[in-house]
Each structure stands twice: as C-alpha cells, then as structure tokens.
Amino acid sequence: MLIIRNLASQLRNRLKKSPAIAILGPRQVGKTTLAKELSNDYIYLDMENPRDVAKLQDAYTFLESLQDHTVIIDEVQLLPTLFSLLRPLIDAKRTPGRFILLGSASPELVKGVSETLAGRISYNELCPIGLTELPDTIGFEQHWFRGGFPESLLSENDLLSKEWIDDFIVSYVERDLAKMFGVDLAPTLLRNFWSMLAHLNGNLFNGESFARSLGVSAPTVNRYLDFLEGGFLIRRLQPWFVNAKKRLIKSPKTYIRDTGILHRLLNIPRYSDLFGHPGVGASWEGYVVEQIYQIKEKQTDLFFYRTQTGAECDLILVQGITTLACIEIKLSNAPTISKGFINCIKDLEPKYRYIITPKSETYVTANDITVTNIKHFLLDILPQIQ
C-alpha cells in the first residue's frame, strides 16, 4: 500500500534549492523509499554494505565523478567523516540536489560530526506514519495501537505486527543503537531501561531513581537516555519556565514516541486489551503529543506546565515567549475540566485553550475551552492557530 508522506513535497522543494538535504529518523521508518522517490537519476550508497563502503576508499574522487547525479548515502552516521568531506565537494559545485543523506541518529550525538554543513544542507526529520497521512482504509484505532512504522502498521494482522515490533526491539537493543553512535552499550541494561521508560511513560524523569533500580550511575542512565532520544525513539518534553514567581516542576517528562513499540514493551496483545491496562491514559497522551509534533510549524515549540501547587497542563504550544495554546489531553470523549487545568490557564493566559479527546464532537465550554477530537484538531485547528 502506497502512503504519501507529508514531508515529500517539502523535500522536493528543498532539493530544488539546496545542494544537499538530510532525512533523519528512526530505522525502518521509510527514509530510503522516500529518498528514491525524490529523484529520477540517483546513485544509491548504503554505509552498511561493505561493497559501497569500499567504493569510498577515495571518497572525494568517487563522489566528484558523480556530480551530475543525485547521490543518496544511507546510514551516513556510520561514516561520519563524510560530513566534512562533502563541504569542499559542494563548494566546488553548488548544484541543487547533489546529495541526499539518510541518517538514523541525531548528528549532534555522532562522534566526529563537527561540521554541520551550515548553509549547504537542509535537515529534515521523517517520523513514523502520522494520523494525517493515513489512507481511508486504516482506522485511527489501528494506528494508535500498532504505531506508525510501516511494517507494523500495514501488517495483515496484529500477530504479524507484534512479531515485527519484537524483532525491531531486539535488533535495536542488541545491535543498532551501539553501532549508530559508535559506542559500547550493554544490551540487557538497555532493554531493562527501555522497559522501565515504557512503564513510566509520560511521567517525570528522575535519573537517580532509574539509576538505583538499574544498579548503575545517574550519568550512565542519562547517557542511555540521550542515545534513545538521538535514535528518535524517546521524546523528552521539557517544562515551561516562563512564570518565575511560581514553584515549578523542572524535570522533563519522557515518552516512547511510537505507541506500537510502547504497547509491545507493555505486553498489550490487542487493541481491546489497551483499555484495561493502567498505562492507557499515558499512551493516549503520548500519542497526541507525537501527532502534534509531527505537523507543527518549526516556530512552534512544545512544553508541559506543572506547579508544585497543582496547576497543570499536559501540553503547551509556545512561539518565542508567547503561550499560544494550553492543551489538556483526555481519553474520555465526555471529559471533565480539571481544577489544575483551570489554574494553568489563569497562570499562563494563553490565546487558545483546548481539551483533545479521541472522538468527541467539537464544542466550547462555559470556561471558553474548546473540546475537540484529535483528527479535527490536527487537520482543521492547528494549521489555523500557528
């Protein structure tokens, strides 16, 4: 099944203007498929293929000989010296669309990537398939339960989806993550850490508590969290600090970004079992946060807000220092408004305030809070308020 990615048209426009673009995102998310659709005349090099790596023994000469083609370099983080080598190649001939770099790791965490190719490259993140990208044949429930990785989402049944995610988790823990960043990671520790993060999905992150449970130091825990985040698997949602007069919570919240992976780590076998699990509320909250992140404008930042006196907001949309919107995320389609959310609105005085549910009708409460469903918010509201 062909799914048209929202990022595709943006990448085509950038490829017409920039000599190089980078498509970043987790493994198996569809980066290679998308990259090959962007050009009719490309040379493909995979840095996990020894034959392709061998071609780059004299990388400058080889790549210079391909200057009339688009060169796609996959898993570029495995050969970080390429980043600095591309600079003179691009400067020698600044033709748009010369290079498409694909990476499964955040460049900031890859050893040796000090040259960012500023002014020469456009960085773009490809996330798992989002709710706004789904064809009519795939329902919201399937997407929330299976997540957005193509092989999982498009599987013939839940069993095949489960098997794919299980293999994905094992390969990431045992091989991929350490290889991507060029570091030694303990697979058992990483798997236990990832499982703990899943069971505490959406909670405040306490590195000391994790360290005690895992029997390691807090710096080790933070380093592992950096790598999971750098592999586009974990999201750290930071607290909003604008109100200095309040005693604010200052620890970030952590989420497993893909709910399909989250549900496997929680061992939830079917969608119907999701609602009997204590983690269902946090799963829904993380799902909404991730869907908004995927289509928000670049100038819009995401935070949460919580004071020690009880004011709380699941998600805040911020532009600069302006609080654009306060959002409470509710699993119930007939939500009640919490006192903590009302106090948050009083503290921050946002331009807009919303409660987002799975499927409720859209209406405005007496408190001037708009209750709406996730799909309507993503398609109709978010584009209008940014």
Task: Please describe what this structure looks like.
There is one protein chain. The protein has 386 residues and is of the alpha/beta class. It has two domains: 7-125, Rossmann fold, CATH 3.40.50.300; 136-385, no CATH class. The chain is 41% helix and 17% strand. Strand 9 and strand 10 (322-329) form a beta hairpin. The longest helix has 24 residues, at 158-181. The protein starts with 6 loop residues before the first helix and ends with a helix.
Secondary-structure element order, N to C:
HEHEHHEHEEHHHHHHEEHHHEEEHEEEH
The counted number of beta strands is 13
**Range of strand content:** 15-25%
> Over the alpha carbons, how many angstroms does the gyration radius reach?
22 Å
Q: End-to-end span in angstroms?
A: 32 Å
Mean pLDDT: 92
Q: Give me the secondary-structure category.
A: alpha/beta
Strand line-up in the sheet with most strands: 8-9-10-11-13-12
**Tally the helices: what do you get?**
16
Measured as a percent range, the helix fraction is 40-55%
**Uncertain segments of ≥5 residues (pLDDT<50)?**
none
Principal-axes geometry comes out as: globular
Largest pleated sheet:
6 strands, mixed
User: How many structural domains?
Assistant: 2
GO molecular function: ATP binding
Keywords: ATP-binding, Nucleotide-binding
Protein name: ATP-binding protein
Organism: Pedobacter psychrodurus
